[in-house]
Design goal:
heterodimer; A: alpha/beta; five-stranded parallel sheet; two-stranded antiparallel sheet; 15 helices; B: about 325 residues; alpha/beta; Rossmann fold; 2 domains; five-stranded mixed sheet
């Protein structure tokens, strides 16, 4: 029956009641990135934590310079440096409890090292002797993830599974500003919010996705604002202020642990080095910008705070540097040894049991290797 | 586990029973996907599971295939055994990055430390009058990805036995369900209704002497029908049901072709870059001196899946199979 036909009987009525499903106001990020160092809040920070962060930052910077040097010596195939971003890396590694999980991207080897991973194992992917050089269950660090943002749904699923089992586990997933354009970023945040999974998403906004600046990546007011659309809180933080990043992440982890659901954290930082050693950053950015960020260096910021407040003296600074040099020397020594390679490994872990077809191919390779050896002996 | 004496009549019901039994036997088995909860899935394969096991075990997810599979990866990392439903063949494509970059290779990346026992159920193939994007034969994509098992049942008994095996497997399994056989009925191994079938074994569905039809999934009933019709032409055709595309049962297939000396591969998937090319090559490599004729392929055309009113021209039918059998150089025998 059309409206015309039922004229007289039909009374227009308003649509069924509608209201927003959640109040967006508490989810919105603050107007300014959260800062601790150089502000009144610094007085409340735990001195032991600040000293720990400092030691890790100094070690982290040295790790970055050493790994970059190893690429020049041909000991690493490639290294995506996190120089300038050490505050985010270190804070991510330290904000989690023992039983929690870290989901790093390929630029986050330092976060994995800060969580306790052996630096040589963390660099296996980039050395090229295998893909993942560590057992992810040992330190609860997922494999370093190269395809952008694809590790984020893994973090959500793991946190969800842990909650279903009744375990006290939070997952912290790391991604860059470019990664927020990927579909998996969207799907992960959506699933996390719908499931109220205990996950924290840390976006390191380092200004560039290889060469493409953020303005070409998004028209959002900030990346933290994206959280509101999913129904989770967004937090903005100064990504070079280690105390601030640690505080925001620790709050988000606590909130997730207490059943409050996921949080999206955007840390504003800067990639001081090129994308990797194979990139030439001079093609897309000027020195002035880089120098401005060097003046807001995460180590200098924290060192200044510690010195001003008498929490560290020259001995303390020297001690941190010496510890970093020890780490670098050890890394250098061990990376200068050729890794042991076994071509049979190529077939060992494709399936729980190799298929008949893989057994045939493995036999083929073995025959080739035997012939190679025989040739070498001639 | 106690076995309830229920004799399902259709493939869909056998699949439901397999999921139910797997969930009852193992609390780590979780079913997830679009509409799998309250509705019981668009093909009703998950019917009743949410009610029996709760929504935490049979979960309606947001509508996002990459997210479904990506979160399943995380759940498997934490020791669960997710069974993911992709609603239709062509709707599984958004999940390909997760499938190829993570699901298929996580075990390998981690030297065996992090296996992902995920079952990915994909209703596939045509013949149901589905409109665009509801009838793809996507098996070649999966076969081309190392690290995945690719399994497809063609009988009611196999639907149960192979799905149980897929869920029990410590490797990821793409479980392709021929949707035009969902409502097919056949005897469901009533003596042993809950037998688990091994993955990687083909079976001879019909013994014969003249030539071998090598097929799987939705094309099995067509091949059996063709074999019956071929008797009138004096051909006694053997029909091999592959059941598992990865791993491939070279032994059973080659043994059959060595006996018959002739082979035709039959599938709905297109022929160029389709499974038939690989199968024909494998058969030729192993049986060259036994072959009386080149291995032929009867496949779908190399076209995007046709609209429903034209699909009968696309799908391999009895006549096209018999025509191919007729081209197997019989005169050379004389």
């Amino acid at each position: 029956m059309t409206v015309m036909e039922q004229r007289g009987a039909y009374r227009p009525s308003p649509p069924p009641a509608w209201q927003p499903r959640t109040d967006p106001a508490p989810l919105l990020p603050d107007a300014e990135p959260h800062r601790v160092l150089g502000t009144e809040r610094a007085a409340d920070a735990d001195p032991a934590l600040l000293r720990r962060l400092y030691a890790e930052l100094v070690r982290g910077r040295r790790y970055n310079t050493q790994a970059t040097a190893l690429t020049k010596q041909g000991r690493l195939a490639v290294y995506p440096s996190s120089t300038g971003q050490e505050a985010c890396e270190v804070a991510a590694g330290l904000a989690l409890a023992e039983q929690d999980w870290l989901f790093p991207s390929y630029r986050d080897t330092l976060a994995a090292v800060a969580r306790g991973l052996d630096p040589v194992q963390a660099l296996t992917l980039l050395r090229g002797d295998w893909h993942t050089g560590y057992d992810p269950y040992e330190h609860r660090v997922a494999p370093l993830c190269t395809p952008l943002a694809t590790q984020l749904p893994h973090a959500v699923g793991l946190a969800h599974a842990a909650r279903l089992k009744g375990d006290d586990v939070v997952a912290l997933a790391m991604v860059g500003d470019g990664g927020t354009s990927e579909g998996d970023f969207h799907e992960a945040l959506n699933f996390a919010a719908v499931w109220q999974a205990p996950v924290v998403f840390l976006v390191q906004n380092n200004g560039f996705a290889i060469s493409v600046p953020l303005a070409k990546q998004t028209a959002a007011p900030s990346l933290a604002h994206k959280a509101v659309g999913y129904g989770m809180p967004g937090r903005l933080v100064d990504g070079n202020d280690a105390a601030a990043v640690h505080e925001v992440l620790a709050d988000a982890v606590r909130r997730a642990r207490e059943g409050g659901g996921p949080t999206l954290v955007e840390a504003i930082t800067y990639r001081i080095d090129a994308h990797t050693n194979a990139d030439d950053a001079t093609r897309y950015r000027g020195d002035t910008e880089v120098e401005a960020w060097r003046a807001h260096d995460p180590i200098a910021l924290l060192e200044h705070e510690l010195t001003e407040r008498g929490l560290i003296d020259e001995d303390g600074v020297r001690h941190a540097r010496e510890a970093a040099e020890t780490m670098a020397a050890d890394l250098r020594d061990r990376m200068n040894q050729d890794p042991a390679l076994d071509p049979a490994d190529l077939f060992a872990h494709v399936y729980a049991e190799p298929t008949p077809q893989l057994r045939e191919q493995q036999a083929l390779l073995q025959a080739e290797l035997a012939a190679e050896q025989e040739g070498a002996h001639r | 586990m106690t076995t309830v004496a229920v004799k399902p009549a259709t493939m869909a019901q056998a699949l439901t029973r397999a999921l139910r039994d797997a969930m009852a036997a193992d609390p780590t088995v979780h079913v997830m996907g679009e509409d799998v909860g309250t509705l019981g899935g668009v093909f009703r394969v998950t019917d009743g599971l949410a009610k029996e096991f709760g929504e935490d075990r049979c979960t309606d997810t947001p509508l996002a295939e990459a997210g479904i599979l990506g979160t399943a990866v995380g759940m498997a990392m934490y020791g669960l055994r997710p069974v993911v439903e992709m609603q239709f063949d062509a709707f599984a494509y958004p999940a390909f990055e997760q499938l190829i970059s993570h699901v298929s290779r996580m075990r390998n990346r981690t030297r065996g430390a992090m296996p992902l026992p995920i079952t990915i159920r994909v209703p596939y193939g045509g013949g149901i009058g589905g409109v665009e994007h509801h009838s793809d034969s996507s098996e070649a994509y999966y076969m081309a990805t190392p690290g995945l098992h690719v399994v497809t049942p063609a009988t009611v008994a196999d639907a149960y036995g192979l799905l149980r095996a897929a869920i029990a497997s410590d490797d990821p399994v793409v479980f392709l369900e021929p949707k035009r056989l969902y409502w097919s009925k056949d005897s469901w191994n009533p003596e042993h209704p809950t037998d688990v079938e091994p993955i990687g074994r083909a079976v001879v569905r019909r013994p014969g002497r003249s030539a071998t039809l090598i097929t799987y999934g939705p094309s099995l009933p067509v091949c059996l029908e063709a074999a019956e019709a071929a008797q009138a032409e004096g051909w006694d055709l053997e029909v091999v049901d592959l059941r598992s595309l990865v791993p491939f049962d070279d032994e059973t297939v080659a043994a059959s072709v060595r006996r018959t000396g002739r082979a035709v591969v039959v599938h709905e998937s297109g022929s160029y870059g389709g499974p038939g090319g690989e199968i024909a090559a494998r058969v030729t490599e192993r049986c060259f001196h036994h072959l009386e004729a080149p291995v032929l392929r009867v496949a779908g055309f190399d076209i995007p899946y046709p609209p429903p009113m034209l699909e009968r021209h696309h799908l391999p039918g009895v006549d096209r199979i018999l025509d191919a059998v007729g081209r197997l150089q019989w005169e050379a025998e004389i």
